Amino acid sequence: MTHQMTLEQAASAFVQQHREYNTAYGLFKGNGIVPYNQQTSFEVDERIPLSPELEYWYNHYEMVDPQAVGTLRLQHAAVLIGDGILLSFAAPAHLHRLQLGHRWIGDAEMPSESEDWKPEHVVIASYNDDPIIADTSAKGTPIYVSFEGGDAVLAAPSLAAFFVALTILIEAATALSGEIQDEDTYEVKAEYMDHIVPKLNALLGEQATHHLLVYLSLQW
After folding, report:
1. Fold of 7-215
2. What is the reported pTM?
3. Whole-angstrom Cα distance, residue 187 to residue 128?
């Protein structure tokens, strides 16, 4: 698995690995990311720009959240990695809610545009309420992360590479039966890090790898 994978290949591998892991260790029955049988149209707030990569993602994959059906809660798919990392990927119709507090600030009913936020930056997911950001203006849709209110930093050069990185993380967690933390010290197991770091460095580069691992609380 390399950064040369197409978005189609990377997304498929990520969703397949997510599905297998979710079946074995998932916390939320029926929740997850599933492929459509055929390309499907979707709804999204017209103010939110989408890159060709995000268009492909939302045309081909559904964020399934049975608990959100018929409620006002955010519809999202939970992606579990190991025994402590839980990413939340919003359904496209709910993307506007992820932009609140980032692109749109102030009164929740009548928010204003933040002068400090690039409108082409779209929050597509989160971890511990910290955003995962897609740069919809750049080729390949680079992915940035921001943690603890800090500046957004590059975590993957493209959406495809980001999906490959997540697949690497989930595969390594699967090899450890989902237990990536030492049960006594709660530190991330050295064997997990030894498995993922070389692969992520080769895929993303050392700096982006560091940003991603810090974001996911796997490295400090």
Report:
1. SMI1/KNR4-like (3.40.1580)
2. 0.95
3. 18
pLDDT recorded at residue 1: 46
Distance CA 133, CA 123 (A): 4
Write down the domain spans for the chain: 7-215
pLDDT, mean of residues 31-50: 96
Q: CA 173, CA 169: separation in Å to the nearest integer? A: 6
What 3 state SS string does 150-177 have?
CCCEEEECCHHHHHHHHHHHHHHHHHCC
Task: Read off the pLDDT of each residue in 5-15 and give the average, rounded to a whole number.
Answer: 97
Q: What's the chain look like in SS3?
A: CCCCCCHHHHHHHHHHHHHHHHHHHCCCCCCEEEECCCCCCCCCCCCCCCCHHHHHHHHHEEEECHHHCCCCCCCEEEEEECCCEEEEEECHHHHHHHHECCCEECCCCCCEECCCCCCCEEEEEEECCEEEEEECCCCCCCEEECCCCCCCEEEECCHHHHHHHHHHHHHHHHHCCCCCECCCCCCECHHHHHHHHHHHHHHHCHHHHHHHHHHCCCCC
